[in-house]
Design a protein that fits this description.
The structure holds 2 protein chains of 2 kinds. By secondary structure, chain A is of the alpha+beta class. Chain A is built from 6 helices and 23 strands. The radius of gyration of chain A is 25 Å and the shape is globular. Chain A starts with a helix and ends with a strand. Chain B is an all-alpha fold. Helices cover about 70% and strands about 0% of the residues of chain B. The chains are: A alpha+beta, B mainly alpha.
Chain lengths: ~425, ~180
């Protein structure tokens, strides 16, 4: 017989035979994936619960830190256009930087960035594509959900508006040493890149690169977004309106398509949430001091009112537009308008305007003493003199999307609604 | 660590990279012992750490970071095991990458018997066994880590121990003559 002590000793010794160190490639793969993977997060407009250690560095720098640790490239892009005062995007394009003229040289600074585009053959069918340039390197990646760097090439400028790529590895049907030459141009704001193939030994690379790309210029390190955009129509890359809470997220480029006029920004894009706001709300404005915003949240639930800011689901309120709207109108501390029908992209819904009862005095506790009512999960509350329009859409199959048009000051609400509703009515859902 | 967790859950990727550096070896050691396959263990490790990055803002107590990641890891191991439908048939004995000299504590016969018996355990039983005998967690800690009742953890550990112990003892017993050959 084996005694208990013998067995424990043998079992431990047997378990100890296996390695204790994670392979470097596994760790590097994690860090690369993190570079393009969004975090879920606490609601943006809950200052009570927000961390005070928010890192305000641009996302490119945050990503670069990971890249350094992973032993790969450092992204450095000078000359990214300022996010404020977006310029309209006419059909004509500007000449590339003068630094591109002459013989072979580094990739122009205006091109050194991450660029987001539609799905390409090398990425998952529903995922967006990410184009990466630094001063001497190029690769294509999936915009989220995969750490793989594809079509890795050395990159150099070879003349005015021309770039040369040479495969640095044999992979993705390209052979090491195969060369491609492309023409590129930026629109006047520098936010839209157009790449045209001139000649490429590797057809796969040509098919993946040629086309139109949007600058990924999210100003906050903890957000994933385009940042300021030119007037036009864009597609989301992370939000998945039909994703069940706790469900497994997978990339879904274009789950939300939206059209904005000049002066707007995509300020956040997460699996469960998405934000649009005027560029004047972007940093250096502190996110906690923003004053206007359109926010989308997937699969909202009624929030329990058993205690202030309870952060638990209210039992007995089903996730349907009718049930949620009816319930919101009964929440203590809220003053609501009558629900009104709305249809967006063929999806029926209802909206109602919400403000705080002036007599309401309850807070979430903690250092913030402003009266507040939190009423929807995730992340919808109203405090002080804020005002918001709550729109709930039935996307079918039990999926509900919440859209909130919010202003910090009641006095600006009507004017912002006038700006925001055409954008919301432009939404289409993939 | 708690400061790094705070920074990472606010989106600081560099802080998260530091956390990965601090925890990845321990997590990998658990995964490879549960899955008995280096490739599956790498996939589980990556899945767990990427999930940790994604979900970090929902972690309320930074002090519980490692326990929280360990739970994600075990669930990632479950997912890997189930994703590879034929994994139990394909589990292979890994080359010994531990002590440089032969370990006299566990004989080759014992090792072989344990390898074979371990394949017969469910992935849940394996997880409890590894967390107890390798990581050194108590049953209460295992229950808390995996989100299961302590009685369930005890039951899984008991079954796993009984199976592995029986395997060693059977291997050591003299071979009885078989009555009839097929």
């Amino acid at each position: 017989m084996t005694t208990d002590r013998d067995f424990d000793r043998i079992a431990r010794a047997w378990l100890d035979l296996l390695p204790d160190e994670a392979p470097d490639r596994a760790v590097a793969a994690v860090l690369q994936a993190v570079e393009t993977t969004p975090q879920v997060r606490r609601p943006l407009r809950w200052p009570i619960w927000r961390s005070t250690t928010m890192n305000r560095l641009p996302i490119a720098l945050g990503a670069a830190a990971v890249v350094v640790v992973a032993g790969t490239l450092v992204l450095s892009r000078a000359g990214v256009p300022p996010p404020v005062g977006a310029t309209p995007s006419p059909a004509t394009t500007s000449s590339p930087s003068a630094s591109t003229s002459g013989a072979s040289g580094p990739v122009p600074s205006t091109l050194q960035a991450m660029w987001m585009g539609a799905p390409r053959g090398l990425v998952a069918p529903e995922a967006g594509s990410l184009l990466f340039f630094d001063q001497s390197t190029f690769y294509l990646a999936q915009s989220a959900g995969s750490p793989a760097q594809m079509l890795k090439s050395t990159a150099s400028a070879v003349g005015d508006g021309k770039i040369r790529l040479e495969s640095s590895v044999t992979a993705d049907t390209c052979t090491k040493g195969e060369v491609g030459t492309y023409a590129w141009s930026l629109n006047p704001s520098g936010r839209i890149l157009t790449v045209t193939e001139e000649l490429d030994d590797c057809p796969t690379r040509a098919g993946a690169i040629a086309g139109t790309w949007w600058l990924r210029d999210c100003p906050l390190s903890d957000d994933n977004c385009l940042g300021a955009v030119d007037a036009g129509t864009y597609k989301s890359q992370f939000i998945t309106p039909r994703l069940n809470p706790g469900g497994t997220w997978s990339p879904f480029f274009g789950a939300v398509t939206y059209t904005v006029p000049d002066g707007w920004a995509n300020s956040a894009d997460w699996p469960e949430s998405f934000e649009l706001e005027p560029v004047s709300e972007l940093p250096p404005v502190d996110p906690n001091n923003r004053s206007r915003q359109i926010g989308l949240n997937t699969q909202p639930s009624a929030m329990s009112q058993d205690k202030p800011c309870s952060d638990t689901v209210q039992p007995g309120v089903t996730r349907t537009v009718d049930a949620l709207v009816t319930w919101v109108a009964t929440v203590p501390g809220l003053v609501t308008t009558a629900p009104t029908a709305i249809t967006i992209d063929g999806n029926p819904g209802q909206w109602l305007d919400v403000r705080l009862d002036p007599a309401w005095t309850k807070t979430c506790g903690g250092p913030v003493t402003t009266p507040i009512v939190t009423y929807m999960m995730p992340g919808t509350g109203i405090m002080g003199t804020e005002r918001e329009r709550l729109i709930l859409l039935d996307l079918g199959d039990g999926d509900v999307l919440q859209i909130v048009v919010w202003t910090k000051d009641q006095a600006t609400f009507d004017a912002f609604i006038t700006e925001a509703m055409p954008i919301i009515q432009s939404f289409t859902f993939g | 660590v708690e400061d790094l967790v705070e920074q990472a859950r606010s989106g600081d990727r560099e802080a998260f990279a530091s956390l990965v550096a601090m925890t990845s070896d321990r997590m990998y050691a658990i995964a490879i012992r549960i899955l008995r396959d280096g490739h599956l263990a790498e996939d589980a490790l990556q899945g767990a750490l990427i999930a940790a990055w994604r979900q970090l803002p929902t972690l309320r107590d930074p002090a519980r970071f490692e326990a929280w990641v360990r739970r994600l890891l075990v669930h990632a191991c479950y997912a890997e095991a189930r994703r590879r439908r034929s994994w139990t048939a394909n589990v292979r004995v890994l080359p010994v990458d531990g002590p440089a000299s032969p370990d006299e504590t566990v004989s080759i016969d014992d090792r072989d018997a344990l390898d074979r018996a371990f394949r017969r355990l469910s992935i849940e039983q394996r997880a409890v066994f590894v967390l107890h005998h390798h990581t050194g967690l108590s049953l209460v800690e295992i229950a808390e880590a995996l989100g299961i009742p302590a009685g369930t953890a005890r039951s899984r550990l008991h079954y796993a121990t009984r199976t592995l112990r029986a395997a060693i003892e059977a291997d050591a017993a003299p071979v009885a003559p078989r009555g009839r050959m097929a």
